[in-house]
From TrEMBL, chain A:
It comes from the Bacteria. GO terms for cellular component: plasma membrane. Residues 95-170 form the MrpA C-terminal/MbhE domain. The chain crosses the membrane at residues 6-23, 30-47, 53-72, 84-106, 145-163, 175-195, 207-226, 238-258, 270-291. Residues 12-76 form the MrpA C-terminal/MbhD domain. It holds the Pfam family MbhE. Residues 178-288 form the Na+/H+ antiporter MnhB subunit-related protein domain. It is found in: Cell membrane. The keyword Membrane applies. Belongs to the CPA3 antiporters (TC 2.A.63) subunit B family. This is DUF4040 domain-containing protein. It is a multi-pass membrane protein.
Automatic annotation (TrEMBL), chain B:
The chain crosses the membrane at residues 7-28, 48-77. One of its GO terms (molecular function) is sodium:proton antiporter activity. PANTHER family: ANTIPORTER SUBUNIT MNHG2-RELATED. The keyword NAD does not apply. This is Monovalent cation/H(+) antiporter subunit G. Keywords: Membrane, Transmembrane, Transmembrane helix.
Length: 300, 97, 481
């Protein structure tokens, strides 16, 4: 039964991806893309990676979909698809061949997970009991710091690259009651995910994405006006604080213990939760700003 | 007791799935945006609500039930709001055209 | 390892500072660049005296955590980056960004350039220090995004289009690279660089290596995957072009060199493929540079050719445990970085003064930006590989090794590529010297700008490096294999 489900899921993912590629209507393509995001999230659940599933559903399907819809609305002219049948067939054949090659490569190696035992061995020293959080914020925290830098660069790009912009207009009165329910809930759920991340699926990225959803509801309800210098400035400072605080924490740990991102003995959990709390706010602010577009006033 | 709840839950979830299938069918067969929207929002909300109730019957523990109810409320709320927004946007587009 | 920590973290913190306080962005940038230069020199000195260094981040040993590795090769790359960074910062101080459209545009360029450039610098430093393939993938993500931003910064239609192509190509390259890393994990169960030798033994591992190199080929703009590069490099602002052409592509080339060193013998097919593609890129890039009508495009195509040369050097280098030919590739990367950055900065100055960058129009007016032309000429000498420049030493090491092996085909290709590079670069240099109002006694000379100082300084460094090439070679010799 589960195998049937998995097979349907796999076929569904590929099918929706094809639908997204060949949809005539731009919105239909984005819709198919979002459905694909949710199916991929489901497949992560089936693969036993609920952390990734949460992030994929919130960011991959939800927020990316929102960004794409917003951009699709901005593009007035429908781009013409001019692919010949032959090029489609050729790329299809190449994709199938490549997939076959990858399948053969994957099945030819023993599928014994090598990294999880290493993590399990040292999990007790990491300060948290969720192995994913232990890897992301302790064993390989340097990766995570650099990923926050990727988000930072994306934010800078949106702020400085000089393209004409669309500002999302408030959507009207009907969104206000929606926001009244969703915003407090998103704060609650995000706090829950953040706290839960220490010993169960969750953490800064998922919590930040959920909080950003609440932020988008505020923006669309017209309650958060980022054009106002104070609100825009606070949000921008929050977004930048992620990399700043993580970097400062790295410096502090190097000064305290001599190891970059090596937390002092017995305090790992406090450090991890502190960093994650700031990251949650920063990720949420960054995502809202990515959606909203630039709010910077050009310095005179 | 548990068998009764199980049967009740299965029945509700089956009914809910039926509603969702109906919604999908309507989305496929109905001719224009507004009628699709009309069918979709109602059938969708009812289907999800039934599935939530069914799942709630089959779980134990108040926390699980509460999060299920939360899911149902959020889906209902966002379904209603987005339905309204989509209809409004299509009306505006028609006026402009 | 304090220096390494400074190199890896400081640029990012300064980038945040520059983004938070746009008016002070240049100050953040200059301070960070100078400290970065100092730290890289200190690191190189410490490696010279004390040998390689290694630090497990968070005190977690390698397969579990991430290690920073500072050896001779990394030190050479870090110093190269720091020197070019200093010159670029100098140039950016003067705001030689073309087509200023009023003060607002300018300050937005300035506000955008510094955080993006500092993030690029941080990503490069982290890349050169990293001992972990997945970590390197993340640095490539930063590098790719910030490079796209640097390309798009001028906001012209061309640069936006080039930036979009760059983004698409870079994402595809990243994806293939990541797939390779995932397969490598599946094959050997670890993703630090120590996994590379084990990859050679299994079919899955070799497929993983192939994917990794395919991703790197896109990122390094190796022929025939260079399609995105000339437009991107030629439409960006001069300081940005210098960064993109001299440093950003070196990230991928460095990793290719590092992996071939780690893999040792047993990757003959891959090496031959690299050498063939490199030779093809060298000839194709040279041919396109010969036909280019605009100066920036010529320099951009020359980068295609030079990347081909470096890849050829990586490809023909033997097993590093028996031969030191890989050092030629490292030295060529170093000399290309310095010379190409000098060249882009010089071209930026020439275009700024003349108001255009058509090669045919270089000697038509009585205006002579002599300092920039001089810097261009010295950089050209180094790129062609004439003595006493660093480019000469690199090519000499390469040809010397090839003669020992009797690989005459490769030598002929190398000499052909060298002759072509001399041909296309002399198109520019000869026009700067030819008669006309340009070199008449009454020709006007623009005043010195910091951009001139930066270009001339870099070109002179490239020249001096040939005389002092013992220093980088000693560093490289100490690299543990």
């Amino acid at each position: 039964m589960t195998q049937l489900f998995d097979a349907l899921l796999a076929v569904g993912i590929v099918g929706v991806a094809v639908a997204a590629l060949f949809a005539n209507d731009r919105f239909a393509a984005v819709g198919a893309f979002m459905v694909m995001g949710f199916l991929v999230a489901l497949s992560w659940v089936r693969l036993g990676a609920p952390d990734v599933a949460l992030a994929e559903a919130a960011i991959g399907a939800g927020l990316t979909g929102a960004l794409l819809l917003r951009s699709a609305r901005r593009l007035r002219v429908e781009p013409k698809m001019c692919q010949s049948r032959w090029s489609v067939a050729a790329s299809g054949l190449i994709s199938i061949g490549f997939a076959g090659l990858l399948y053969a490569a994957i099945t030819s190696v023993p599928t014994v997970p090598a990294y999880p035992p290493l993590v399990a061995e040292r999990l007790g020293e990491s300060g948290v009991s969720n192995p994913v959080t232990a890897v992301l914020l302790n064993f390989r925290a340097w990766d995570t710091l650099l990923e926050i830098a990727v988000l930072f660069v994306a934010l800078v790009l949106v702020i400085v690259v000089p393209v004409s912009r669309v500002r999302p207009a408030p959507l009207g009165e009907m969104v206000v009651p929606f926001a009244k329910v969703v915003v407090p809930l998103s704060v609650l759920i995000s706090g829950h995910l953040l706290w839960q991340g220490a010993d169960a699926p969750g953490g800064a990225f998922q919590a930040g994405a959920v909080l950003a959803g609440g932020g988008l509801a505020l923006v669309l309800a017209g309650a958060m006006r980022l054009k106002k210098p104070l609100q825009g400035g606070i949000l921008r400072a929050t977004a930048l604080s992620g990399l700043a605080v993580f970097g400062a924490a790295a410096v502090a740990t190097a000064a305290l213990t001599g190891h970059l991102l090596g937390y002092p003995d017995g305090q790992a959990k406090i450090w991890i939760l502190g960093i994650e709390a700031v990251l949650t706010l920063a990720i949420a602010a960054t995502l809202v700003l990515l959606f909203h577009g630039s709010v910077r006033r050009v310095p005179k | 007791m548990s068998t009764v709840l199980d049967i009740l839950g299965t029945a509700m979830m089956t009914a809910g799935t039926g509603f969702l299938l109906m919604a999908a069918f309507a989305f496929w067969r109905l001719p224009d945006l507004l009628s699709r929207l009309h069918a979709l929002t109602k059938a969708d909300t009812a289907g999800v609500a039934l599935i939530v109730c069914g799942a709630a019957c089959m779980t134990s523990g108040i926390a699980a039930v509460l999060s299920l109810v939360l899911c149902g409320v959020l889906v209902a709320l966002s379904g209603a709001t987005t339905g309204h927004l989509i209809a409004q946007a299509s009306l505006e587009d028609e006026e402009r055209a | 390892m304090t220096e390494a920590y400074v190199l890896a973290l400081l640029p990012f913190l300064a980038a945040v500072g520059a983004a938070a306080t746009p008016r002070m962005a240049a100050i953040w940038g200059l301070c960070a660049t100078l400290i970065n230069l100092g730290a890289s020199i200190l690191l190189a000195a410490r490696i010279l005296s004390g040998g390689d260094m290694r630090a497990d981040l968070g005190d977690w040993p390698a397969p579990l955590g991430i290690s920073l590795v500072a050896d001779g090769l990394a030190a050479v790359m870090l110093s190269m980056t720091a020197i070019v960074a200093t010159a670029v910062a100098l140039q950016a101080m003067s705001w030689g960004l073309v087509q200023p459209r009023g003060g607002q545009q300018r300050s937005r360029l300035q506000a955008g350039f510094w955080p993006l450039w500092l993030a690029t610098l941080g990503a490069l430093n982290a890349l050169f220090l990293s001992g972990d393939l997945f970590n390197i993938y993340v640095t490539f993500e930063i590098l790719g995004l910030s490079a796209v931003g640097l390309t798009a910064l001028t906001g012209s239609r061309n640069s936006l289009r080039a930036a979009f192509d760059y983004l698409a190509a870079g994402l595809a390259g990243s994806l293939v690279f990541l797939l390779g890393v995932a397969l490598a994990y599946a094959a050997v169960g670890r993703v630090d660089l120590a996994a590379v030798p084990a990859l050679v033994d299994t079919a899955t591992g070799r497929l993983a290596l192939g994917l990794i190199f395919a991703g790197l080929a896109v990122k390094a703009a190796l022929f025939p995957l260079h399609f995105w590069m000339p437009a991107a490099h030629s439409s960006a602002a001069p300081a940005a072009s210098a960064v993109l052409s001299a440093l950003v592509v070196k990230g991928a080339l460095y990793l290719a060199l590092r992996i071939t060193i780690e893999a040792g013998a047993g990757i003959e097919v891959l090496r031959i493929a690299l050498a063939v593609l490199g030779a093809a890129g060298m000839l194709w890039g040279s041919w396109m540079a010969l036909r280019a009508e605009r100066l920036k495009l010529l320099v951009a195509y020359s980068t295609v050719a030079q990347i081909g040369l470096i890849t050829l050097a990586i490809g023909v280098a033997d097993d590093p445990s028996t031969s030191a030919m890989w050092q030629a590739a490292a030295l060529l990367m170093l000399s290309h970085a310095l010379a190409k950055a000098a060249m882009f900065l010089a071209v930026g100055r020439i275009a700024e003064e003349l108001g255009h960058d058509r090669i045919s129009g270089l000697n038509r007016t009585d205006l002579r930006p002599g300092v920039a032309e001089f810097a261009f000429a010295i950089a050209a000498v180094s790129l062609i590989g004439l003595p006493p420049t660093a480019g000469f030493i690199g090519k000499w090491l390469l040809i010397d090794g090839l003669i020992d092996r009797g690989a005459w085909v490769w030598i002929a290709l190398l000499l052909g590529g060298t002759a072509l590079s001399a041909a296309y670069l002399s198109r520019v240099v000869s026009r700067c010297l030819r008669g006309g109002p340009h070199v008449a006694p009454g020709a006007r000379r623009p005043e010195w700008r910091t951009g001139d100082v930066a270009a001339l300084g870099l070109a002179t460094t490239a020249l001096a490096l040939g005389l002092g090439s013992a220093l980088p070679l000693t560093l490289l010799n100490g690299t543990a294999l």
